[in-house]
Design brief:
single chain, 463 residues, alpha+beta, three-stranded antiparallel beta sheet, 19 helices, 14 strands, globular
Length: 463
């Protein structure tokens, strides 16, 4: 796998004039190569760990039929590897604990609570755009929008979900990103026995950073608990709702322990800003390449918003922006794969998949499959989602931007709201074009991100 990746990386990046959306063979070169030899369902190994690779939506549908969310787990090999980053948060926890965590978290993301977050999102985005205006007036027109989106989304999640200030929020997400680099940028040996001993530096760095984040979050949680106990105002953000005593009977009503709270905060901090920030980054690139869609979205924003400030009630009217969102998630899905581990024996098409089998679902492979999407599969065509939630895909399981089944991403509505607010504010103030210094190099580092940054030319719109 390393050899195929190395030979692929020497020829995969391309300049700003040659931006191809055909990315499967560059981000997963070994899977693209093995698909040609072995089809869309096969077994491969990571060390001593067998993985069932799936890029066939019908096989996936048959396999997942009737499987409850708690019957799927995350591969133990990845849970152990990523513990400093996620602990036992919702992404990794399973069984009855998963049901309990999901039960506690879901109410925090209800429409009334999302509506309350909108003004904070507008405030953080306006701060970013004000900075852009200052840079442009000083003669800087090229801005690395990926770095800007990551920073702003981190600030938004800090304010809206945890009620914490910019400095504390920035410290948490910078340490999380450092863990991400330590765990995913180097060639490590996941699945190989004693693999952590083969990469001691990265393993120790991730462990130490994980402890530093835990300590910071513990202090934030303790401060909030103290405020609540002293009769202070109970914030209705994610942390406030997680801290509320749940008086329902039975295990579902049991509140989360402090350790579980810390892990949920880490999970939400990372998942809550990373997915949206990368979706926005790839959107800005594609809009820079397709200025006709910039104009189309500006017309829609003007029609829906008029002379008013953007607010929560207007977002549903931004239909075309919803098409763009779906098309970006198809071409550059921030979550490029879905991982599962079977918790019971399964039979699919007379094949027995034993309990404990790791499953790797290739989302990029399915999203870029001409047999599912047609000959225009690599083209940026948001209109394919105009009258079809699945964009004309020939199989509903072929479009999985937020996973599938019971373990589908709980924060997808929060992510879409933030996306529409930030994109609306950017497009009403600036026009975008691709910088000549941009080099197209999508790469996997847990998420699908620009490997060499994403510089765009940003110019103020003429009023």
């Amino acid at each position: 796998m390393k050899k195929i990746s190395t030979s692929s990386s020497t020829s995969s990046s391309s300049g700003s004039l040659n931006i191809s959306n055909d990315i499967h063979s560059s981000v997963f070169p070994y899977f693209a190569q093995w698909q040609e030899s072995h089809g869309k369902v096969f077994i491969y190994w990571l060390g001593t760990e067998p993985f069932l690779y799936i890029a066939d939506p019908e096989f996936l549908k048959t396999m997942s039929n009737g499987v409850m969310g708690k019957s799927w787990g995350k591969p133990n090999v990845f849970k152990n590897d990523r513990k400093p980053m996620f602990g036992d948060g919702l992404v990794m926890v399973e069984g009855d604990d998963w049901v309990r965590h999901r039960h506690v978290i879901t109410p925090a993301l209800s429409p009334p609570n999302l509506k309350a977050m909108a003004s904070l999102m507008v405030e953080s985005t306006n701060n970013m755009l004000q900075k852009w205006g200052t840079l442009i007036n000083s003669g800087y027109k090229e801005i690395d929008v990926e770095r800007e989106m990551i920073a702003t989304a981190g600030e938004i999640i800090a304010k809206t979900s945890f009620g914490i200030g910019y400095e504390n929020g920035r410290e948490v997400f910078e340490k999380l990103r450092a863990i991400q680099f330590a765990l995913f940028k180097t060639n490590r040996y996941v699945g190989v026995p004693y693999s952590k001993l083969l990469c001691p530096k990265q393993t120790l760095e991730a462990k130490n950073l994980g402890k530093e984040i835990d300590d910071l979050l513990l202090s934030i949680i303790a401060e909030r608990k103290k405020s609540n106990n002293n009769g202070g105002y109970v914030e209705k953000d994610l942390l406030g709702l997680l801290l509320e005593e749940n008086h329902e009977d039975g295990k579902l009503g049991k509140k989360l322990t402090t350790r579980e709270l810390v892990d949920e905060c880490k999970t939400f901090f990372f998942g809550g800003h990373e997915t949206t920030a990368l979706a926005l980054s790839w959107t800005l690139l594609l809009l820079a390449k397709h200025p006709e869609w910039q104009n189309c979205l500006r017309d829609e924003i003007k029609q829906v918003q008029g002379d008013k400030q953007i607010d929560f009630s207007m977002l549903a009217g931004l239909k075309k922006m919803g098409w763009v969102w779906n098309e970006v998630l198809r071409l550059y899905s921030p979550s490029p794969n879905v991982q599962r581990q079977t918790r019971e024996d399964m039979t699919v098409n007379n094949l027995t998949i034993p309990k404990g089998t790791n499953v790797w679902i290739d989302v990029v492979g399915m999203h870029h499959d001409p047999n599912l999407w047609g000959e225009d599969v690599f083209e940026f065509k948001p209109e394919r989602f105009k009258d079809d939630l699945y964009g004309g895909c020939k199989h509903k399981m072929g479009f999985l931007p937020f996973g599938f089944g019971g373990r589908m991403c709980v924060g997808r509505n929060l992510s879409m709201m933030e996306y529409k607010i930030v994109l609306s504010l950017i497009l009403t103030r600036f026009s975008l074009s691709v910088s000549p210094t941009y080099s197209h190099s999508p790469s996997i580092m847990l998420s699908l991100r620009p490997g060499l940054g994403l510089p765009l030319i940003i110019e103020p719109l003429c009023n």
